[in-house]
Each structure stands twice: as C-alpha cells, then as structure tokens.
Amino acid sequence: MSQTVILSDPIFDTHTWLGHVEQAERLVAIRNAIASSGLNRDLHHYEVHPALESDLQAVHTPRLLAQVRRLASYGGGQFDSDTYVTPDSWEAATLAAGAAVGAVDAVAGGEVRNAFALVRPPGHHATPSRAMGFCLINNIAVAARYAVRRLGVARVAIVDYDVHHGNGTQDIFYDDPHVLFCSTHASPFYPGSGSITEMGDHAAAPGTTLNVPLPFGTGDRGYRRAFEQVIVPAIRAFRPELIMVSAGFDAHWSDPLGPMVLSVTGFARLNQIILDLADELCGGRVVMSLEGGYNLDALAACVVASLRQLIGRSPGQDAIGQVEAPEPDAEVNRVIDILQDRHPLLR
C-alpha cells in the first residue's frame, strides 16, 4: 500500500482577490517548497473532482450554495469584508470540497494510510447557511459527512488547530453523535465562538464538541499540554475510525493575523501526537485539509514538515526558529482543569 497522497489543483489559484491575505500565492509557496524539498517523488498525486451537489447539500443549505454560484456567475463580489467571490470561485470551492472527499475516499478505502488536501478557499468558518471568514464551502465538513453517510464510517474525529475557532464545523456537527469536533484556538478572537461551555447538543450529541480556548501568547509548550491532557484522552474515549485535521498554520509566531507563538517544530509535535493516536486507534487513517496560514514562508515550512511526517520521516529542521517568550502557563492550566472537570469525555 502506498503511503501518502496529496490532492490539489491549479484551479485553486483562480480564486484570488487583489490585496487579500488569503491569496493564490499561499499554494504557490507550498508547491515551490514541496518541489525544493524533494518530496514529490515520495508523494502520490491524485486527480481532484468537484464534490457532488448531494454531498454539498448534506452540509449546506441550497440557498447558500445558490448564493455562491450566483455571485460567481455575476463576475464576483463579497459576502462580507473578509469573504470574496471571483468568477472562478464556485469551481474552486466545489473542487476544494471534492479534494477533501477524495482524500477520505483514498484513506477510508485503504488505498493509502493518510492524505493531505492542499486546497483553497479554506472552509472551517462556513456554516450551513453562511459564507464567512474567507470560507465559502466547509471542505472538511463535507468530507467528514461523506465518510459517515456514504462510506459507513461510524465515528470521525476532527482536530482543528487553526488559530481561529472552526465555528462552521462546530455548527454543522453540533448535534451529530458520529463526529467529534476538537478545536484549539486563540481566545478571545475571531469569530467569537468556541467557549468551553460549548460541548455538543445535550440531548443528541453530548460531549461531541471539545473547545480548548487558549490565551494569547500560547506557544509550543501550552499547545502540547492541551493536546496531551485534553485532546488525546477525549479522542481515545470517542474511539474514531478516522481522524481528520483542519490544518491551519496561522498560530505560528510569524503569522500576521494570529496572536499565538507556535513554531514549525511545535506544529510538528502536534501532528506527531495525532499520527500516533491514529496508529493506536484507527489503523493510521488521517486526512489533513488546509485551512489558514498567512506568512508564506512559515506556511510552506509547516506543510513540508507535515508531509514529511505523513510519509514517516522526521519533520526536519525548523529553519524559521522559535520565539523566546514566556507563555501564559497559569491560564492554560486553568482551561485544562475546567475541561477535565466538566467535559463528558474527560470525566
């Protein structure tokens, strides 16, 4: 069995708005870094197909999908000050969701152990009925629901370590007992959701949402502690058959949008925790889907390190380095203590 697949497409570059931080150059930087790293010979590139309308409607309202399609057909525009549409955005967005679905197909079908959907636009802020936060269609949610409904995967765990809370993914699965959504994110920060008290629908899916809101300035040490003491035991209790990762790298210390201080090495430690957990629980089945990350050098370095780990190598040297600054340990410990006391999967 081949090891690692990546799914991407040049069409994603056509979704770009002059001066916007979520731009085509993000994937250009990633592709260039992969080529320079020599990893291409160890990666399998799968063709990407658009997500089916039925799979999109399993997550989003027909009205939202019609809005995105119509705005693209009119030549583009904006849903809000953050979220734009170009003439090619409908094609790019449905192809991005399709790439995530294709990654699930490859991994759940046993063709490969893991896969990375290198996509744009990102998805985790898109709710069932609203495009927001740079996101038009929720790629990872479309793929996770596809895994459950179409492939019969009983339980999927989604880990979102983007610096922003994945409010759209949470909303989509809040009452779904088949999907555990775990998020570490800066708090208080955009989009303002993701409190400790949001733990899933009490009647339908208690405990299937796990939010770890972290204080500004949290870095490698605090994130690792949150993963080891909260995320890992919760996923173990849930026993997923597939682990998916909303891989946003905007918690890196150099990111222009984020207030956190993770390093490339710090992200690699989080990835290794996830990969080890997948080996333990679900035959190593991991699907990653790109979300944020807006310093091009850091984004590319994080993706290359992640791919090295997916193919079974060390993440390599962190050429960008770390920030030497005190972390808010007491505040991080307080969040962990509250979750360990109150969350259904941790009691």
From TrEMBL:
Pfam families registered for this protein in UniProt: Hist_deacetyl (PF00850)
UniProt xrefs under PANTHER family: HISTONE DEACETYLASE HDAC1 (PTHR10625:SF10), HISTONE DEACETYLASE HDAC1-RELATED (PTHR10625)
GO MF, one example: histone deacetylase activity
UniProt similarity note: Belongs to the histone deacetylase family.
Entries under Gene3D superfamilies matching the protein: Histone deacetylase domain
Domain Histone deacetylase positions: 20-309
Record SUPFAM superfamilies: Arginase/deacetylase
Organism: Candidatus Viridilinea halotolerans
GO-annotated biological processes: epigenetic regulation of gene expression
InterPro entries: HDACs (IPR000286), His_deacetylse_dom (IPR023801), His_deacetylse_dom_sf (IPR037138), Ureohydrolase_dom_sf (IPR023696)
Protein name: Histone deacetylase
